[in-house]
Amino acid sequence: MDREKIVKMVVVLAAIVVIAGSLSRLFSSNSMSLSEYAHINGGSPTQEPTAPPEDADAVSTPTPELPDSSPSPSPEPENIPDPEGDADEEEDIPVSSLTGAVLNGTSQADQRFTLEEGFYYEPVSDNLRRYMTGVSYPAEDAGAESPEPPEITFDELRYVHILHIDYDGNPTEGELVCNAAIAADLTEIFRELYRNEYRLEKVLLIDEYDGDDTASMEDNNTSCFNYRTVDDTDRLSKHAYGLAIDINPLYNPYVTYTEEGAEQVSPASALPYARRDLSFPHKIDEDDLCYELFTRHGFTWGGDWNGVKDYQHFQKTLEPAAP
Question: How far apart are the first and last CA of the chain?
Answer without folding.
Answer: 161
